[in-house]
Design a protein that fits this description.
Helix content: 25-40%
Strand order of the largest sheet: 5-7-6
Order of helices and strands: HHEEHHHEEHHHHEHEEEE
Distance between the termini: 52 Å
Number of strands: 9
Oligomer: single chain
């Protein structure tokens, strides 16, 4: 007579592992970040006194009801679930309330963020590159491994391949926005009066207007074939502002991509081929962070699962 009980017990961990794996595969960026924020300490004013409490609601720091914030969260959101275990840019006011958006509004906000975050600057060839300290350490390690393999990892496009100011993101936005307006006006899709009015809009409303036009397939990327946000970030929303992004000259080399991934750098903005984001985790951990892989142009991008 055989005793099958040990076999049954052995199966239980396998089933449990499969269930955990399935849960990780179904996690969304929104649920992962919401759980993290729920554990975060915050300041609160109670009876006129400032006290520390636990728990931040995602809606307090990123208004997903706003079309611009929601789109930024969907397209660039991988940066908020890396190894630093925090929402990359939430800002709390002295009265305990939060600035409820995922986007910096002006240069002063970006400068304040840069001053508050530990960063490092290094010369890579003739180019000065500034990144968050942990991201720079990982890049230096990746470059050392690449050089040992007779490869290289260098910035693409000068110093703005890494850290960017609000002004940098505004300039890049206009480099797509203005030619896009001229293109669609010339084709008769957008009236000249509407285009001129869009130029005068406050920047957040301008971005919302462009996204609304793109719902008609009037795209504002360089070749007018895809969304402007796959070409440049909305002003104040770039991962480069958070100093955890680098545009890499050698992005097309699969060996370089593998080395960067080994050191926690991944492509997370779909169709932006040179752009890498420092996540600080191993690739096998990304699904549990609410990310899923998609392949574009033969390259793998880890984008938010919705």
């Amino acid at each position: 007579m055989y005793n099958f009980e040990p076999m049954r017990l052995a199966i239980i961990p396998i089933i449990l592992f499969a269930a955990i794996s399935a849960a990780a595969q179904s996690a969304t960026l929104e649920t992962v970040l919401a759980k993290r924020l729920a554990l975060k300490e915050r300041l609160a004013v109670v009876n006129g006194k400032t006290v520390t409490k636990k728990g931040i609601a995602l809606s307090e720091v990123c208004d997903l009801g706003d079309p611009v914030s929601a789109r930024v969260f969907r397209d660039y959101g991988a940066m908020w679930v890396g190894n630093n275990d925090s929402f990359a840019g939430y800002r709390q006011n002295p009265d305990g309330t939060f600035v409820a958006d995922c986007v910096f509004d002006d240069e002063s906000e970006v400068a304040a963020y840069h001053a508050a975050v530990s960063s490092k600057t290094a010369m890579i060839g003739p180019t000065s590159v500034t990144l968050r300290a942990d991201a720079m350490d990982a890049l230096v390690a990746a470059r050392a491994e690449a050089l040992a393999a007779k490869l290289n990892i260098t910035p693409r496009g000068g110093s703005t391949a890494a850290r960017r100011s609000f002004g940098d993101t505004l300039r890049l936005w206009r480099s797509r926005f203005l030619p896009g307006l001229d293109h669609w006006v010339a084709l008769g899709k957008i009236k000249r009066a509407d285009a001129d009015a869009a130029k005068r809009l406050e920047i957040r409303k301008q971005v919302a207007q462009v996204l609304a036009w793109e719902e008609n397939d009037w795209f504002f990327s360089t070749d007018f074939s895809k969304s402007i946000l796959y070409s440049v970030a909305a002003p104040g929303a770039s991962q480069h502002i958070f100093m955890i992004a680098l545009d890499v000259e050698q992005f097309s080399n699969p060996r370089v991509r593998a080395i960067l991934a080994k050191h926690g750098w991944f492509q997370t903005v779909k169709s932006d081929l040179p752009h890498f984001t420092y996540m600080g985790v191993q690739e096998k951990e990304l699904p549990a962070l609410g990310l899923e892989p998609v392949t574009v142009g033969g390259q793998r991008f880890w984008i938010p699962r919705t």
